């Protein structure tokens, strides 16, 4: 369930006016921006952008870019975008920032539904005039490339059918390859990148039943290996994304210095999806409400904005 | 341009009645079937199927299956299907018939537009409860698998932008890998499987300008190698599909014994697309109208049906 609190009815024109006023003159009224934008669903934000464009002949996003600085700006900018477009931007930034942030590529390709991810690929092409597959292949090499290109390439089957015999045989294929430290074995990439999420879950459950240890725990022993770390992240994203996001939040908040990129990304992308469940998982695991941890580690308008998205 | 001749207006109910009558009693009136079905556009055939179902509470395809035998049946059955669904069936048959017919997988993944191919992938999942990627990965191995999975996986960018610098550098990457006989070089797979058709065409043009020989001719020297043959087919499908289809037709008709699978596939899948251009290319290359070659190599209702689709 989502965490954002938004009215069923709103006036896009009035919202646009509030935003215009908040940006006018010297300084910006960030509180006013948050009071409107943090409390609108994606389609409502789209309507506001349209109303703003019609009324002031200026793109709302460009206007905000010139007004805001730092973590708050980045968070608000991500938030305003349509979810598919936002994921396209996240993936592009992950590829272009010198060092490829493979975790973001895995997160975007494996936690979205096949239809959502398809929309991301369309948005990526519309924005960058390249396919996402093309850019991932271009900015990575070796085994990591093989895995990432396969993960972004697949249009995964979304049905609920489970083939138990297949789960058993593929659990053994995985076990054997991992036991031999053949993490780049093409069968691992095939199974993780092409099977439906339901089928893959059946396979890793079977793995656990047979070998008394989960496949992600087995892989955790080799976490400094980028390929193993990626495989592990992909399996976690595909089979238990709630737990995966809780962990990203926990790591981001516990880091000395806080990882604002990860923190913003999880809250912004999940606020209108399943942030409520992620919050529950966080509380269960850390015995502290995530709002409290966020309030402790962030400050100012950035803090206010994240807390608004968290449902405060 | 398409070759089929169909009326703008038709009555789906009357068409269904003609078909019913043609199938009733002892024997089948194949001529009547051809006179209706060979002269209807995809959406019209869909309306006929619906009208037939409503009126006779029976699926038209099942009814025809019980009436028809051999090449004519297979051709008519392929023809009746919606184009995306038909491609899904073609791909599935190519994968499941013991030996994988990689040429069909390449043809379907590389000659359709990105949107058309996406529809094929959706149709495949709806029909077989697996993704096409999954089944291709499952039924192939080694280098061929790498190439085919990449080709079916990609959602290719469809824009017209050309990056000339990139074309030059990637032409050199291709040239170097081919010169060293490294046909399984991951850069070849990356370039062929991820670049837009327009960009790839610029790259192979550049290759030809620099090296005075086309890349497909260079590859032709190693045609008995399945991977090289596949790469060559993919490049031809992606950059000049008309010429590719002409060649498939020519080979199918010139073979001793005629390759009915290839012949049917090209005529049925292109009749409502670009069969007119393919016919022109065929005439230019062979100095014989393709209708004449088809009439010589086939007979009976199968011949009549193919000729009808060819626009006779």
UniProtKB/TrEMBL annotation, chains A, B:
<dbReference type="GO" id="GO:0009414">
    <property type="term" value="P:response to water deprivation"/>
</dbReference>
<feature type="binding site">
    <location>
        <position position="255"/>
    </location>
    <ligand>
        <name>Ca(2+) 2</name>
    </ligand>
</feature>
<feature type="binding site">
    <location>
        <position position="295"/>
    </location>
    <ligand>
        <name>Ca(2+) 3</name>
    </ligand>
</feature>
<keyword id="KW-0041">Annexin</keyword>
<dbReference type="InterPro" id="IPR018252">
    <property type="entry name" value="Annexin_repeat_CS"/>
</dbReference>
<feature type="binding site">
    <location>
        <position position="67"/>
    </location>
    <ligand>
        <name>Ca(2+) 1</name>
    </ligand>
</feature>
<feature type="binding site">
    <location>
        <position position="303"/>
    </location>
    <ligand>
        <name>Ca(2+) 3</name>
    </ligand>
</feature>
<feature type="binding site">
    <location>
        <position position="25"/>
    </location>
    <ligand>
        <name>Ca(2+) 1</name>
    </ligand>
</feature>
<dbReference type="InterPro" id="IPR018502">
    <property type="entry name" value="Annexin_repeat"/>
</dbReference>
<keyword id="KW-0106">Calcium</keyword>
<dbReference type="GO" id="GO:0009408">
    <property type="term" value="P:response to heat"/>
</dbReference>
<keyword id="KW-0677">Repeat</keyword>
<protein>
    <recommendedName>
        <fullName>Annexin</fullName>
    </recommendedName>
</protein>
<dbReference type="GO" id="GO:0001786">
    <property type="term" value="F:phosphatidylserine binding"/>
</dbReference>
<feature type="binding site">
    <location>
        <position position="297"/>
    </location>
    <ligand>
        <name>Ca(2+) 2</name>
    </ligand>
</feature>
<feature type="binding site">
    <location>
        <position position="298"/>
    </location>
    <ligand>
        <name>Ca(2+) 3</name>
    </ligand>
</feature>
<feature type="binding site">
    <location>
        <position position="27"/>
    </location>
    <ligand>
        <name>Ca(2+) 1</name>
    </ligand>
</feature>
<dbReference type="GO" id="GO:0005544">
    <property type="term" value="F:calcium-dependent phospholipid binding"/>
</dbReference>
<keyword id="KW-0479">Metal-binding</keyword>
<dbReference type="GO" id="GO:0005737">
    <property type="term" value="C:cytoplasm"/>
</dbReference>
<dbReference type="GO" id="GO:0005509">
    <property type="term" value="F:calcium ion binding"/>
</dbReference>
<keyword id="KW-0111">Calcium/phospholipid-binding</keyword>
<comment type="similarity">
    <text>Belongs to the annexin family.</text>
</comment>
<dbReference type="GO" id="GO:0009409">
    <property type="term" value="P:response to cold"/>
</dbReference>
<dbReference type="Pfam" id="PF00191">
    <property type="entry name" value="Annexin"/>
</dbReference>
<dbReference type="InterPro" id="IPR009118">
    <property type="entry name" value="AnnexinD_plant"/>
</dbReference>
<dbReference type="GO" id="GO:0005886">
    <property type="term" value="C:plasma membrane"/>
</dbReference>
<dbReference type="InterPro" id="IPR037104">
    <property type="entry name" value="Annexin_sf"/>
</dbReference>
<dbReference type="InterPro" id="IPR001464">
    <property type="entry name" value="Annexin"/>
</dbReference>
<dbReference type="GO" id="GO:0009651">
    <property type="term" value="P:response to salt stress"/>
</dbReference>
<feature type="binding site">
    <location>
        <position position="257"/>
    </location>
    <ligand>
        <name>Ca(2+) 2</name>
    </ligand>
</feature>
């Amino acid at each position: 369930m989502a965490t954002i609190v938004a009215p069923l009815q709103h006036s896009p024109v009035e919202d646009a006016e509030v935003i215009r006023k908040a940006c006018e003159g010297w300084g910006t009224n960030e509180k006013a921006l948050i009071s409107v934008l943090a409390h609108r669903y994606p389609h409502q934000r789209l309507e506001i952008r349209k109303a703003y464009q019609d009324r002031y002949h200026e793109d709302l996003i460009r206007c905000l870019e010139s007004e805001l600085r730092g973590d708050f700006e980045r968070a608000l900018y991500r938030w305003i975008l349509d979810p598919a477009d936002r994921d396209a931007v996240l993936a592009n930034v992950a590829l272009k920032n010198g060092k490829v942030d493979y975790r973001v590529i895995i997160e975007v390709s494996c936690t979205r539904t096949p239809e959502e991810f398809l929309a991301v690929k369309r948005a990526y092409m519309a924005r960058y005039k390249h396919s996402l597959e093309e850019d991932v292949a271009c900015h990575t090499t070796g085994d990591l490339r093989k895995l990432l290109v396969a993960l972004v390439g697949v249009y995964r089957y979304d049905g609920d059918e489970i083939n138990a015999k297949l789960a058993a045989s593929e659990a053994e294929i995985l076990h054997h390859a991992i036991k031999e430290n053949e993490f780049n074995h093409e069968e691992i990439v095939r199974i993780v990148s092409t099977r439906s999420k339901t089928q893959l879950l059946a396979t890793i459950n079977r793995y656990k039943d047979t070998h008394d240890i989960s496949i992600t725990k087995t892989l955790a022993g080799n976490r400094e290996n980028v390929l193993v770390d990626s495989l592990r992240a992909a399996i976690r994203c595909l089979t238990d994304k709630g737990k995966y996001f809780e962990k990203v939040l926990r790591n981001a908040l516990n880091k000395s210095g806080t990882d604002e990129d990860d923190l913003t990304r999880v809250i912004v992308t999940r606020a209108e999806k399943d942030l409520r469940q992620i919050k529950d998982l966080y509380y269960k695991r850390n015995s502290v409400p995530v709002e409290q941890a966020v309030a402790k580690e962030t400050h100012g308008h950035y803090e206010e904005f994240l807390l608004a998205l968290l449902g405060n």
